[in-house]
Amino acid sequence: MVNRKELDPEGSPGERFGQRLRALRDERGWTQDELGSRMGYSGTHISAVETGRRPPTPHFAASADKAFGTGDKFERQERAVRQTALIEGFPEYVTHEARAAEIRLYEVGVIPGLLQTPEYAATLEADAVRREAITPEQADERVELVARRQAALVRSPSPLIAAVLDEGCIRRSMGPPAIMSAQFARLLEFAERPNTVLQVAPFTMGARRPFSLPITVLTMPDRSLMSYAESTQRGHLERESLFVLPILTAYHQLQAEALSQAASVAMIEQLRKGTS
């Protein structure tokens, strides 16, 4: 089969679910469309779950058990997927982020993953473990994902990355001064790249800030648009340009109101001095 993606049964819970789904489908000689017809889903949906681009839902897992006659094995495996470190919707977003020609992001409270140092990321997740929000294993998974996402963007041509950070992102200390000093250095290095823009949205913007939650807008190689936003429990990937365009317009307004890159760099340099 041409361009058949190899699956890693030792990977994430979502990848293990997809690998088992494909293995049983292959055993029966069914195409993705045939399995989809038996389960009440499209062949495209089956493909997305098999390759880990789309997480299975409880209904999907129950339908798979019924189609294959596997009792509740897929349902139990789906529960393991939901218990992973990544919130619903995020794994699918990451696959698009890795291919995007342009990435525009706005973050609140913490340095965004694409700009984090490994030490900052580890400190952030260690606090989540302390609060018993995630397990140590899930913390390791999140830190590893930060590294993989950053590595995926080291390619040619380089994607444009515009990052607007709420002032709270750089004011909030994360670990000892040495970690913050290194993180500030990473931000300053990011700002010097030819394919990046870094700005700080100061507290003084007040009501002029168009977003209250983090948001990301992706421009894909074919110039189509996607946006991604998340709450505490789940993320939402919007693919309809009609709905993404107003978000992109608001992002441009945010950039116009935020500090210039020069002023943002000066603020970060001043904060870095306080950590040395």
UniProtKB/TrEMBL annotation:
SMART domains: HTH_XRE. Residues 21-74 form the HTH cro/C1-type domain. This is Helix-turn-helix transcriptional regulator. It comes from Streptomyces mooreae. The lineage of its organism: Bacteria, Bacillati, Actinomycetota, Actinomycetes, Kitasatosporales.
